[in-house]
Amino acid sequence: MFGGISAEYGVSNDFYAFDPVNLQWHIIDRYAGQAPTRRAGHVFEADKDTNKLYLFGGRGNTGTATTSIPLNDVWEYDVFSRKWVCSSCQGYESHLTRGGMER
To answer: What is the pLDDT of residue 61?
Structure first.
């Protein structure tokens, strides 16, 4: 699980993994590369064939508590090397949010 939003802390870039054996969540705070910026309303998918996680878009914080901007970046996280890579960080403006078209 990546990011999200809460009334107390605002937009987050916290990164968690679930341990199904012990039924516990663990924060992932040691990884290579720069992590994606804080966001909510993004798409986060797993590819079991490549052992990578993919994150797209969402809405990011502009520095104020009441304003957010649509994000248009694609990140991949390699589970084995524990490394984030930005696959497409060309810009932040997008008409795509929450995994679909904004009307």
So the answer is: 77
